[in-house]
Each structure stands twice: as C-alpha cells, then as structure tokens.
Specification:
CATH superfamily of the largest domain: Aldolase class I
Shape: globular
Number of helices: 19
Helix content: 40-55%
Mean pLDDT: 91
Distance between the termini: 72 Å
Strand content: 5-15%
Radius of gyration: 23 Å
CATH class of the largest domain: Alpha Beta
C-alpha cells in the first residue's frame, strides 16, 4: 500500500494548480476550460484527494474505503487509475485516455459556468475596427467598479459560481491602476488568473514584472497581423505593433504562459496566413488562437465584415500554413457545422457559451450573456448569483432556445447550436445556412429573441452619435 500512497500524494500535489473538482454538477475541470464528467464516486474520491493538505491526499482513499466498507487496496487501485487518466489529460488534452468513457451528447447536465471574465473597463488606447465593446467610447460612458467591488465579484466567482479561473479583460484592463492588486487578490483566494490585453502597457512599462510578482498565470495578447502597418490600421493606433510585440515578449520571458489571438476581419483576412510563421519563428509559440468578428460594437459600422462563408474559405489555408510551420491553430468562434465543422478540421469546436460555459461581468457589475451584449441579465453587485444564473433570460441562452428554426432538422443542431445568435440578429435571416425559409418559425424566433432573450448587442458608434 505504501507505493499507492506515495503515487497518490505525489500526483495530487504536482497537479493541484491544474485540476478542479466540482461537486455541484459532477465535473472535473482541467484548467482553464477542459471539462470532463465524473460519476458520484469519482467526484467524492477525487474531491477529497484534492481538498486535503499537501502530502495527505492518500487519507481520502482510507476514508472512502471505510465509508463504503470495501478493501482499501481496491479503492487505492481506482484512485491510481483516476490519477493516471488525469496525467494523460494534462499531457495531451486532445487525446482521449482509455480510462475515459465516452457518453452520448447531452447525457450530462452542467449547471454552473466553467470560465469567468470581468471587463474591468471599456477604456482602451486602441480603436479596433471590429471592437465588440465599442471601446474606447463606451469607456467614457460606463464607470468601472471600485477595487473593493471587483474583489466582491471575484469572491462570488470563487464561492458561488464555483469557477476556478478568471480572465481580466476590457477594453484594456491594464489601464486600471489597481490591476496588480486585483491579480494579487484573485490569486490569494485560489483563482487561476488570465489577462486579455493589447500588450501596449506591458511593452512600455515595467507592468509585466509586477504582474509576475502578483502571480499572473497566463496572458492572451491581441495581435491582428504580422505586418506592422496592417496591425496598426486594424487597431487604429500608429506604432501599436511594436509596443504589442514588445509587451508579449516581456510577458513570455518572465515565464507567464502567453499566446497571441487574432480576430479575422476584412482588413487582415488577406494576410492572416502569414501569422503562423511569425508566431513560431519570431515569438517562439507552439500554438496560436484565432476568432472571427462578432457583429456588435464597431463592427456594426462596417456592414461588409467577413461572415461564416468567408471564414470557411480561409480557415483551411491558415490550417495548412500552421501545419507547414509546426504550430497548432486553436479556433475560438462558434461556427455552423454545415458551413465548416471545426471539430472535424481538428482546430477546436464550441457552441455559443452565452450564459452557459461563460460567466461574463461588465465594468459596472452587470452579468452579460457574453461580452458582446449591451445589457445584462442581472447585476452581480446587487443580486444573488444563483438568482441571476437561473432566471428565465439566462435559461433562454443556456437551453439554446436561440437555435435558428431552419436547424431543427439537422443532426448537429445540439452540438453547434447554429453558432452565434448575435450573428443572425445582424444578418436578419438564415439564408447563409442554405436550408430555405421557414417564415412563421422565423417570426417566432425573432419574437422570442426580443421578449425572452431580451439582451441587445452592443451598438455601433454611428448608432450612438
């Protein structure tokens, strides 16, 4: 039994920072966002092992054996298999270990979010042509929370939402003078902290060193092109490219897990296939992420922005360049699988996470379905989290009631869920899906979006003038 005990203690102690077991809905989260479902015995055993102090995790095996009246050796053997599976998941999240049983889609019900984000401000040095938040204009109109209010939200994320990870975003979060204090506090209560940034402040100040000292785990830096002139044009900020790249390099050199993310838009779509080589050779990256424009905020002022069909044409070319360069492409945006199946392409896949996998908090404490919505489903500073998370408006999104009616006969509708509802709001119809028109169901869909889903997209600057 000594070998079992040593193995259990060593594995648990070495993986504590990456593993989160949630009893409420029986999920195992490999931080930040890989979700696996456990049976009740697995939840109990893993939960106890990871909750005990360092070097004492094996006591959970003895406890479970006593509680169920079974042999300690049998429980120890199960514990070893569970931990070996976790090690495999940590080494290669894309590979399914043999110990993981595949079950049918929808057979598990996850009640709480997996990720959280707080937009600390809508202020920004850039003015990106596609900015979903209409930054920096909205930064002047919407006041941010005080430091103490942000801390209150972080506690709610940790204790009520039971989410192990928070992303600090904006706008540009590094414009807040208390950003280091916020990171430090989030770490002190046990959260994994990610920073989503344009990298400029990190490039021109000593902020990366202070963030490292505060415990920042990771950073996602927005880089819109490997061509300086294209990046600067997209973000509306001369000389931004140089500062952003310098900021990224500082963060990475300090051991902060950093990667770049690119939003494909009409201004950079002809150049994005050049990014993989730059990311690999100049930035030393093993992977890069990309997404497409969400048709809110500034993007509404540019009606010719790229759509799903255009993205489907360019993604295989980018993927090919990534393969040639030896860098992995991770795709973030939900896509209709009838246009392009990103899972089959091996670049990731997700349905809309609005009020589902994501808890999104605005600078004033409003809980948004996702950050691209103008108005929220409640305010986390004034209301109980569960009252917000389980209200009718939130359930509209979580139950995927926004799935386009033309998707009802599709065998993949419960997987891709028709992609982004805001996209279809902007398009006004579903013709791009090539499934014909269903006039009455479409009218019902629009009425439900308006009166049940309620939340509007962020308006463009032209709309606000």
């Amino acid at each position: 039994m000594e070998n079992y005990g040593q193995f259990v203690n060593q594995v648990v102690d070495s993986t504590r920072d990456y593993v989160f077991v949630r009893d409420e809905d029986g999920v195992l989260i490999i931080k930040p966002n890989k979700v696996h479902y456990l049976n009740r015995t697995g939840v109990e055993l893993l939960g106890k092992m990871y909750s005990l102090p360092q070097g004492q995790s094996y006591l959970a095996v003895k406890d479970v054996a006593n509680n169920y009246g079974v042999k300690e050796e049998d429980v120890a053997r199960d514990a070893r298999r569970l931990l070996e599976t976790i090690l495999e998941l940590l080494k290669s999240p894309e590979c399914m270990p043999v110990q993981v049983k595949t079950t049918s889609f929808g057979s598990h019900k996850r009640e709480l979010p997996v990720l959280s984000e707080i937009a600390l401000t809508y202020r920004c040095q850039n003015k990106c042509v596609f900015c979903y938040a209409s930054s920096p204009e909205r930064g002047k109109a919407l006041p941010g929370m005080t430091t103490e209010q942000v801390k209150k939200v972080l506690l709610t994320i940790k204790n009520d939402a039971k989410v192990p990870t928070v992303s600090l975003t904006g706008g540009e979060p590094t414009l807040r003078k208390d950003i280091v204090e916020i990171v430090s506090y989030a770490k002190s209560i046990g959260l994994r902290v990610n920073l989503i940034t344009n990298g400029i402040m990190c490039g021109v100040t000593d902020l990366p060193y202070r963030l490292k000292e505060a415990g920042l785990d990771s950073a996602q830096v927005s880089l819109e092109s490997s061509i300086p002139e294209v990046h600067d044009r997209v973000v509306g900020h001369p000389m931004a490219f140089k500062k952003t790249v310098e900021g990224f390099k500082k963060l990475k050199s300090l051991g902060i897990h950093a990667h770049i993310n690119t939003t494909i838009c009409k201004d950079n779509i002809d150049y994005v296939d050049q990014l993989p080589k730059f990311a690999k050779e100049e930035l030393g990256l093993e992977y890069q992420s990309m997404n497409m424009v969400i048709r809110t905020g500034h993007a509404q002022d540019h009606p010719d922005e790229v759509g799903y069909t255009e993205i489907a044409r360019v993604l295989p070319k980018i993927k090919s360049e990534c393969k040639k360069t030896g860098i992995k492409l991770v795709w973030y945006s939900p896509m209709p699988y009838c246009i392009i199946n990103t899972v089959a392409e091996g670049i990731g896949g997700t349905s809309c996470a609005a009020s589902d996998g994501l808890l999104s908090v605005a600078p004033d404490g409003s809980v948004l379905p996702c950050s691209s919505f103008e108005n929220g489903i409640g305010n986390i500073l004034r209301e109980n989290f569960r009252d917000i998370w389980f209200n009718r408006q939130s359930l509209y999104f979580r139950k995927k009631e926004f799935v386009p009616p033309v998707c009802n006969d599709c065998d993949k509708k419960n997987i891709c869920c028709g992609a982004c509802p805001l996209y279809w709001d902007n398009r006004g119809c579903f013709d791009e899906l090539g499934r014909g028109r269903k006039i009455i169901p479409e009218l019902i869909w629009k009425a439900k979006r308006k009166y049940v889903g309620k939340s509007r997209p962020v308006g463009g600057v032209a709309d606000e003038a």
